[in-house]
Amino acid sequence: GDRVNLGFVAETERQVEAHLTSHLDRLPPQDEKSRAIVGVMRDDEARHADMAEAAGALPLPRPVRDLMHATAGVMKAVAYRL
Question: Residue 80 pLDDT more than 90?
Fold first, then answer.
């Protein structure tokens, strides 16, 4: 249903937000342009998650969130190697 779908949206956005935060943590402080771009992207993802939650997203069970995280890790590893 819609609430479960919104739960997936919210979780996806939260995981992307965390991924972008890790990029920010690795960017040099003097790279202000890149930091600004990634910061805006991260803030957009957080806002999307907030909107999904406000619209009634059901929190996903921990095993589902963990599986999503693991799958994203595989996709990032493959993308890095291509």
Answer: no
Instruction: Pull the structure tokens for residue 31.
Output: 């790279």
Give dist(CA 70, CA 62) in Å, integer.
12
Q: How far apart are CA 45 and CA 35, in angstroms?
A: 15
Per the prediction, the chain carries an average pLDDT of: 96
Query: Residue 27: is it exposed, middle or buried by C-beta count within 10 angstroms (0-12/13-18/19+)?
Result: middle
Say whether 56 sits in a helix, a strand or coil.
Answer: coil
Residue 51's CB is within 10 A of a number of other CB atoms, namely 14
Cα dist from 21 to 1, 48, 55, 56, 74, whole Å: 30, 16, 25, 25, 19
Length of the chain: 82
Residue 82: pLDDT over 90: no
- Provide the token pair at 9: 């949206």
Query: What is the identity of the amino acid at 52?
Result: A
